[in-house]
Every structure is written in C-alpha cells, then in structure tokens.
Design brief:
The chain is an alpha+beta fold. It has 20 helices and eleven strands. Flavin-adenine dinucleotide binds next to strand 3, strand 5 and helix 14.
C-alpha cells in the first residue's frame, strides 16, 4: 500500500486572491487609474505565487558566497548572490518596484502603486526588498538634498526600469559602537589631495553588492555625537569594477535574511562625496530612514499575508480527526484572529504610504505632516511586531511541517524576525515617537486623536460606532498615561514608551480598519472587514499599564525586592 503523503500548500495569483488588497485599492484609487494599473499587478501576482515562488523553494539552500582572494593572490572580495536574487534584481527593475514611485503618471497614487508592487514581490524573493528599500531611500535622499552632481550621477540608475542600467544602494550607518546610537560612530573622513576619504569599519552593511551607498563619517576635527557626522556618497567600485579601498571582512552568519549579503566592511581611505553640509549627517539621512521604515512595514504585512495564504490553503488539505482543518472551528478561529491582525496592520501600513504619496506631490496638509512624522515610527514598530507574532502562529498552524526546513515555512519566521530589529528597534522607535510628539509640541498626537475621532463620527453601522469608541478610549488613555508619566520624570516616560506607542498604533489600526469596513459595507455589501475589526478590537488594543521603576529594575535584573 502507498504510504500517505500530504500534499503541500500552494499559492495562486497573489494579486487576484488578495481580497484585502483589492478592496483597499478600490477604495483609495480612482477607477480608471485602477483599471490601467491592474494588469501589471496581476502579472506580478501570478509571478509571485507561481514561477518566482517555485524558484524561491528551489533556491532554498543557496546562500551568497564571499570570495576574498583570486587564484593569483589578489584581494577581490567578490560576493556572488544566489540565482533567486540575480533574477529578483532583473524583475525588480523591469516591474519598476522602485521606479514606479518616480516615473509613474498617477501623482500621489504613484506611491500606492509602487508599494503594491513591492508588497506582491517581496515574499517570493527572500528579502530582495532590502536593497530596494535602501535604493528608494537613497534616490529620495539625493533628490531632497538637491546635490545636482549626485542626482545626475545616480538617480537615473536608482530609478531605472532597465536591468542593464539599474543600480541599488546601500545604507551604511551601524558600527560596532551602535546601530541605535549612531552618534558614537568611529568612521572618520579626511580631506586628502582634493578628495574626501573615509576610514573606519561598518558593522552591518546589507547589499554590499550595491553600486553605491550613503553613509556617515566624522570629518576630522568635528565634534563628537550625531551632529558631528556628515552624510557621504560612496561609489563602491572604480571604472574597472574594483572595490575602492573597501575590504569585505566577512559576511554575517545570521538567523534569517540569509540571502541578503550582510557584510562587515573596512574602509581604508574610500573616496566619498559629501551629499550636503559637513555636519548633521544623522538628520540629513532622515529621508532615507523614513522611507526604509515604510518599506519595512509594507514587507511586514506582505509576510503576514503570505503566511496566511499558505496556512489557508493547507487547512483545506490537511485532515485531522476526520475532517479538514478548515472545518475545525478552533483552527478557523486561530486563523481568523491572525487574519484580523493582518488586515489591521495592512490598513496602517498603506495609510502611511498614502501620506508619503501626498507629501511627494505637495498635497500633504500641515496636519497630515505632523501625523506622518509620528506614524512613521509607530507604523514600523507595530507592524514589525505583528509580523513576527503572526509568522510564529503560521508556522504552528502547519504542525511539525512548519518546523521542517524544506517546506520553506521556517523561513517566514526567521526572516520576519529581522523586521523589529533593523531600521530601528521597537524601543528605539517608541522613544522616537515620543520625540516626534515633543518636538512638534504634541501636534502629531493631537492630529492622530482628531483623525481617530473623525473616523468614529463618520462610521454609521452601529457595531462600527461601538468599536470606534474602543479606539477613541485607547488613544485618550495613552495620552493621559503620557501626561501622568511626564509629571514623574523622563525615566517614567521612557519606561512606558513601548506600551504607549503600541497602544496608539493598535488603536489607530483599528480606526483605519473601521473606515475600510464602513466603505466595504456600503460599496461591496460585505461585512468581512466589520468582522475583522470586531475580532481585532477584542485582541488587546489598550496595552497601557502602570509604570513602577523599582519593580522593573528588580525583575529585569532578577534581584530580590524587599517588602
Ligand atoms: C540582518 C541585518 C541587516 C542589517 N543591515 C544593516 C545595514 O545595511 N545598514 C545598517 O546601517 N545597519 C544594518 N543593520 C543594523 C541594524 O540597523 C542595527 O542592528 C539596529 O539598528 C540595532 O542596533 P544595534 O545592533 O547596535 O543594537 P543596540 O543599539 O545596541 O540595541 C540593543 C538593544 O537595546 C535597546 N535600546 C537601545 N537604546 C535604547 C534606549 N535608549 N532605551 C531603551 N532601549 C534601548 C534596543 O531596542 C535593543 O533591544 C542590520 C541588522 C541586521 C540584523
């Protein structure tokens, strides 16, 4: 007798099957534009669920290889990426996954178009979106900086749709001294014979295969701290393709993102061009960080959606206790909670995308500007966390198969785990959110409150009205907790920052989900989003808890706490 073999999960067209994405796009993009854009999304959806997904599975054991020396003793430091990444690079250019934001003809909707592409592309490429995020960030930073020489030199390449001329960019900030506190960076810049040259070590540089990088270094004589750093443009290779005084010490041996060649680099006098002034480098890099954080969030929701698509399909096939898992009420309940979490995260992520699109086309109001500044941190931190939690449940939903490497499933969890770390950890971004509020005298928080209240006033369905009150109450509670903490001093404010940020983020996700739900009730006669909002609202929106510094210190350090 043939032994039983379980049929594996499969994916269909990842655009066509994504009801959440399509409903969202229908709500936010004008009809004619939507019709014109859909064929390319369909094509990308077919590729992502088909050929590219199969290629990803086949590429599973491949990893980038660093060759430091050639046969004749020359230092070459060549990094060969895997076949999947080589293909992803070509596809990224052809499908305009960066370019669509720059050469599209849809005004402020260009960003929605571009991030829809990124969202569809990402989960079948083993995080090729990492270099794409930095490339997008570099293009935007150079354009904002207004350095015409660098704009002419690099931007046409960074935004090219031709694989032959397409460049990617790195973003080298983190040094061994710190990735959060980059003000401690040790890399120096010296002006030697008419050229700036960089000396130091960069501790985490993903995509060292890129053609250019934006990086930080301290011009000699500058003060310590972030303000003393300057933003530099580095062309990695000379005309002969040789690295310009850059030594690749090694590739990191990482938990996940193993296709991403993350290297430690030594700069031994690497020629560099100042992008702007010779100071305030951290501040001048902010446009890059804001975009890469948004990419982080879009890829987080993309991973969530991929995990759920696989889990859903598997539940139709896997039999336990006499029925498919998809007929087991508890299994369904588990997946439903994950789906609600994904839908809420999706709405926040793409709301931020909308704001960026408006900003780039001069349509952002002053109020929305404050909101965008605050949401950039909140969105990144909360969706990163949601992606990891969802990936963990997705893996479990496959039982033992989810833990077995050649199913391709463990990758989802490992690769998601980077999302709350790079581009700013959860704590660092929670503090950043507080800084954003303080710097703009509370405006960001005021606008977030106002937008939540506005949604609460506009939803009509009685259930949505009730749920909206949850969001309003949670935001108010978070604000009150912040006020109370401020009266007790900075350590109390900081200790509560993560709970404050997560509460604001979750409450706002709920509000945005309610907005979509109301629209869908009216225009699609569908209460699916209402059900998602109901479920999401029941899953801990308000995370505010009292802060007790003494208890926290005793617990964190595992010390006795005398009564
Ligand atoms: C796979 C991968 C690829 C990467 N690629 C790049 C790259 O291409 N370019 C690049 O520049 N960097 C890159 N990084 C580095 C990444 O951005 C940093 O690791 C990250 O910013 C954290 O910095 P750190 O490692 O120095 O941790 P630390 O800053 O030492 O943080 C350690 C812990 O302390 C917490 N913490 C820090 N400050 C505070 C505070 N004030 N209050 C409370 N808690 C705090 C953090 O939340 C964290 O949990 C990459 C990292 C990874 C994992």
């Amino acid at each position: 007798m043939q032994p039983f073999n379980q049929s594996p999960p499969q994916l269909g067209n990842q655009y066509h099957e994504d009801r959440v994405l399509r409903s969202y796009l229908k709500r936010t993009i004008p009809g004619e534009m939507l019709k014109a854009l859909e064929p390319e999304w369909q094509e990308l959806g077919a590729l992502s669920g088909g050929e590219l997904y199969q290629m990803q599975l086949a590429d599973r054991l491949n990893e980038p290889v660093l060759t430091q020396w050639d046969a004749w003793g020359n230092r070459i430091d060549h990094i060969e990426v895997t076949p999947l990444w080589q293909q992803a690079e070509k596809l990224a250019a052809t499908f305009g996954i960066v370019a669509a934001a720059y050469d599209g003809h849809n005004g402020r909707y260009n960003r929605i178009d571009q991030f829809t592409r990124a969202y569809l592309f990402h989960p079948s490429t083993d995080v090729y979106t990492c270099p794409l995020a930095m490339t997008d960030g570099a293009a935007r930073t150079l354009l904002k900086a207004g350095n015409q020489t660098l704009i002419k030199q690099a931007v046409p390449h960074l935004t090219s749709r031709d694989p032959a001329t397409f460049w990617t960019s790195g973003q080298w900030m983190t040094e061994a001294t710190g990735g959060s506190d980059v003000g401690r960076s040790e890399t120096t810049a010296r002006f030697e014979n008419g050229t700036w040259r960089l000396y130091g070590r960069k501790w985490f540089t993903s995509a060292t295969t890129s053609q250019i990088a934006l990086t930080l270094a301290r011009p000699q004589g500058n003060a310590n701290g972030g303000k003393g750093l300057a933003l530099f443009y580095v062309k990695l290779r000379d005309e002969n393709g040789k690295l310009q005084q850059i030594e690749v010490a090694r590739l990191k041996d990482k938990l996940g993102t193993r296709k991403v060649p993350t290297a430690e680099l030594y700069l031994h006098g690497t020629p560099a061009i100042p992008v702007m002034e010779l100071a305030n480098g951290v501040r001048n890099m902010v446009p890059m960080l804001h975009l890469t954080r948004t990419w982080n969030s879009v890829t987080a929701v993309s991973f969530m959606r991929r995990g759920l698509a696989l889990a859903r399909d598997y539940a139709q096939k896997r039999i336990a206790f006499g029925a498919n898992l998809s007929q087991k009420s508890l299994h369904l309940d588990t997946l439903a909670t994950l789906q609600a979490e994904f839908e809420a995260a999706f709405m926040l992520s793409f709301f931020v995308v909308e704001l960026i699109g408006k900003e780039e086309h001069g349509e952002l109001t002053e109020e929305e500007g404050h909101l965008l500044r605050l949401l950039t941190s909140l969105n990144k931190l909360i969706t990163g966390k949601q992606a990891v939690a969802t990936a963990s449940e997705v893996v479990e939903s496959f039982g033992g198969a989810g833990y077995v490497e050649d199913t391709g499933l463990p990758l989802l969890l490992r690769d998601s785990q980077v999302l709350p770390i790079w581009e700013g950890t959860t704590n660092v971004l929670a503090l950043d959110a507080l800084r954003a509020i303080a710097k703009e005298e509370g405006e960001g928080l005021r606008i977030l409150k106002a937008k939540t209240a506005q949604i609460a006033h506009t939803v009509q369905h009685p259930q949505l009205v009730t749920l909206a009150q949850n969001a309003v109450t949670a935001v108010n509670h978070a604000e009150q907790a912040l006020m109370a903490a401020m009266a007790q001093g900075q350590p109390v404010v900081e200790a509560g920052a993560r709970r404050f940020a997560l509460t604001l983020g979750r409450a706002f996700e709920l509000a945005l989900l309610l907005e979509q739900a109301q629209w869908s009730l009216i225009h699609e006669k569908d209460s699916h989003f209402l059900a998602a909002a109901n479920r999401f609202a029941a899953a801990n929106i308000n995370l505010i808890a009292p802060v007790n510094l003494t208890e926290a210190a005793a617990l964190a350090n595992d010390l006795p706490l005398p009564i």
